[in-house]
Amino acid sequence: MWTNCAVGNSGSQIDIVGQQTQPGRGGSDTGGSEGGGGGGDAGQAAPPPPTIPPDDGCTDIGLDGQGIVAACPVAAEEEPAEEAPGIPPVTAADVASFAPDRPPLQAEPAGVGVVGMPANFTAGVGAHTRTGTLFGRPVTVRFTPVAYVFDYGDGAVGRSSTGGASWQELGLPQFSATPTSHAYAARGTYTASVTVEYAAEVDFGVGTWFPVRGVVTAASGGYPVEIFEVRTALVDKTCVENPAGPGC
């Protein structure tokens, strides 16, 4: 339940100020912390984030028992990748143990949102390399993100070729729709996550990058998002003009 609410709209930004009380939960929640959830009918159970994308044939590598990396084969009709001379064909399963970066999932507004209004998700991660030994030879593996699969926690899934950008970077006002945003239909606490699909290449010290068959995936941890309902009311003056007014 929200009390003492005040809403300000400057045209480029919506500010919502108020106090929230919920049965069985003390204090207000500004979002962004683990374990925050709505009480009673305000919340819903947050499903665990996926560890691998829903592609058939993927093998969960399960590094350190976390299950954050998987190897997925390419479709049979794709052309075979170029192979390094004297080296067996390299597949995604061969290089998944080199552990590409987990995507750092973020959302704005931070950890909160409004029913029916877009919450903007970003998961920026770039190309990076790992070194080690493969087939008994020193090797450098380069991982390049090629797709991002966003699981918004309410049953909706979005796929993007980029990790998205903030409203400020896009030059958009708050609550604008973006290629990676999502509008929730009901209030509650949801656990969002993102899985990045990496294309991999290997260099066995000859200065030439050879593509790897398949993709390697890495998943973020769960990101809790609390969605609220906002009600508006017409008043004679703003809270700045009349601090003692209703809702101020």
Write structural notes for this entry.
It is a single chain. This protein has about 250 residues and is mainly beta. It contains two helices and 14 strands. It has helices at about 90-95, 165-170; strands at about 1-10, 15-20, 60, 70, 105-110, 110-115, 120, 130-135, 135-150, 155-160, 180-185, 190-205, 210-220, 225-230. Strands 3, 4, 6, 8, 9, 10, 12, 13 and 14 form a nine-stranded mixed beta sheet that branches. It has a three-stranded antiparallel beta sheet with strand order 5-7-11, with no helix packed on it. The protein has a two-stranded antiparallel sheet with strand order 1-2. A hairpin with a 5-residue loop joins strand 9 (about 135-150) and strand 10. The protein is elongated. Residues about 25-45 have low confidence and may be disordered.
